[in-house]
Design brief:
This protein is of the alpha/beta class and about 475 residues long. It folds into three domains: about 1-120, Nuclear Transport Factor 2, Chain: A (Roll), CATH 3.10.450; about 125-260 and about 445-470, Medium-chain alcohol dehydrogenases, catalytic domain (Quinone Oxidoreductase, Chain A, domain 1), CATH 3.90.180; about 265-420, NAD(P)-binding Rossmann-like Domain (Rossmann fold, 3-Layer(aba) Sandwich), CATH 3.40.50.720. The chain contains 14 helices and 25 strands. Strands 1-4-5-6-7-2-3 form a seven-stranded mixed β-sheet, covered by helices on one side. Strands 10, 12, 13, 16, 17, 24 and 25 form a seven-stranded mixed β-sheet that branches. Strand 6 and strand 7 (about 110-120) form a beta hairpin. Helix 8 (about 260-275) crosses helix 9 and helix 8 packs across helix 13. The longest helix is centred in the middle third of the chain and has 15 residues, at about 260-275.
Length: about 475
């Protein structure tokens, strides 16, 4: 890393720093190219007006002063190290001068196309990442940040995975809301599953369930159980570190896209179907939902295992996707009728009940898989044959309480199971099953890391079908 005079490096950089010294916002903004971007605390300012607002609030509004400590060129960037001072006590609790780096990336015309402001030294290894800066239940996406951060160090017994692809999950939305089984420590990189390579080139899939390494028994019942991205940094980054026991070798005939989505939704679906339901080949199963990550996985796994798969979906489009994936019959969720029931036609329903009744189920089923919770739980119970099994894994419809027919529960020998994710043995079995059957998870959208927000927004708005993959 070489140190050089600012004026020898770039006129735009020299004038930008001079503008900071003079608290001249107009002079500062004019050094940027037409599409120039400023990133501070991982917030992106993409227009001249936004950059000027940052300057006026962050610098001039706090009567900032800087002392230039050094400058130079490192790879593609021009860096300026400063010591900044100002009236930051009230807003940030900062009472002493603090070091800061300005990382300038210039166009061929010597205009600023990107300026990063942070405390990372130019020579420190960095990686691109997407993270939650805090939890905001009312506006989850306002907590989202995307920028570079330091490459994580590797603790003893852990490995660093260079992430190739990662799957998005609704768990990421919970993190942005600040919700979780544990107290979340921000900033927290999102991403609960993924696949990539080790330092020696070995291609691996991340097993996302972590916990006490000394726990004996089913790891999903470990009181210290957590998943990647809860108590550790997640996989929506170029690198992630995990315990060595949490990587599994990727089959050569499996794509990184497929591998990247097996850790949460597909593992949960595998455990629901093969461990908890007790289903045998040829039996009927109902999946409450058609296009969510767990729902599509259940449909594909059930079909591959020889089950007779039925599914529900709120729209004709969603039901068509379920049928495309192999479902034999599809119905409206929650409103589907059993043969013994009768509802008035749609036009006779009371005001507010806009959904029409669905098709009558031809017969009851051996198992129902419910990811919605409150709004479908009663219907799920009604669809079960004597001795049938209901397996639950989600609360996508909202509430945490559901109506339960206790008479049916014990007189008809109904089994109800709750589950989430799976253990390592199930994960390895899932990988082998997917590889042996040539399954390709339903992934209608693949995004670059820079557009992860687009996928998260779709998930928040309930517009996701199948899985969304983010490529690094």
């Amino acid at each position: 890393m070489s140190q050089q005079s600012m004026t020898d490096i770039s006129k735009a950089v020299s004038q930008a720093i001079e503008a900071v010294k003079n608290l001249d916002g107009s002079q500062f903004v004019t050094q940027f190219s037409d599409n120039g971007v400023l990133i501070d605390e991982a917030k992106h300012y993409r227009t001249p007006g936004a950059i000027l607002e940052w300057f006026l609030k962050g610098l001039k509004g706090h009567e900032a002063t800087i002392q230039v400590l050094g400058s130079g060129v490192f790879q593609e960037e021009v860096w300026i190290q400063v010591m900044m001072d100002g009236d930051y006590a009230a807003d940030y609790g900062i009472t002493e001068p603090f070091p800061l780096y300005f990382h300038f990336f210039l166009s061929d015309e010597d205009r600023i196309k990107l300026l990063r402001v942070n405390q990372i030294r130019p020579e420190e290894p960095t990686m691109r990442a997407v993270w939650a800066a805090n939890g905001n239940d009312g506006d989850p996406l306002s907590a989202l940040r995307s920028d570079v951060m330091k490459v994580p160090e590797v603790p003893e017994g852990w490995v660093r995975v260079k992430v190739v692809a990662a799957g998005l999950n609704y768990h990421d939305i919970f993190t942005l809301r600040g919700m979780g089984m544990f107290e979340l420590k921000f900033p927290l990189i999102l991403g609960n599953e993924g696949a990539g390579t080790l330092h020696d080139g070995t291609e691996v899939i991340i097993f996302p369930v972590m916990g006490n390494p000394d726990y004996k028994g089913d790891g999903t019942l470990d009181p210290e159980r957590h998943v990647l991205g809860e108590l550790t940094q997640g996989s929506l980054a170029e690198y992630v570190v995990v315990p060595e026991r949490n990587v599994v070798k990727k089959p050569k005939n499996m794509s990184f896209e497929t591998a990247s989505v097996l850790g949460i939704a597909w593992l949960t679906a595998y455990r629901m179907l093969f461990t908890r339901s007790g289903l045998a080949k040829g039996q009927k199963m109902l999946v409450q939902g058609s296009t969510g990550g767990v729902a599509t996985a259940l449909i594909q796994l059930g079909v591959a295992a020889g089950m007779k798969v039925w599914a529900t979906g709120r729209t004709a489009e969603k039901r068509a996707i379920a049928e495309k994936l192999g479902a034999l019959r599809t119905f409206l969720p929650g409103e589907a009728l059993l043969p013994s029931e009768a509802l008035p036609p749609c036009e006779a329903l009371p005001p507010g009940e806009a959904l029409p009744p669905g098709e009558a189920l031809p017969e009851k089923v051996a198992a129902v898989f419910d990811m919605s919770g409150e709004k479908t739980f009663k219907h799920s119970m009604e669809c079960l044959e004597t001795g049938g099994t209901l397996v639950c894994c989600g609360l996508h419809s909202g509430g945490v309480f559901a109506e339960l027919d206790l008479m049916k529960l014990f007189t008809q020998g109904i089994n109800v199971h709750g589950t989430y994710a799976g253990n390592r043995e199930e994960f390895e079995a899932l990988i082998a099953f997917v590889a042996d059957h040539g399954l390709e998870p339903y992934i209608p959208m693949i995004l670059p890391l820079e557009k992860a927000e687009e996928g998260l927004r779709m998930m928040l708005e309930g517009r996701v079908q199948g899985k969304i993959v983010v490529k690094m």
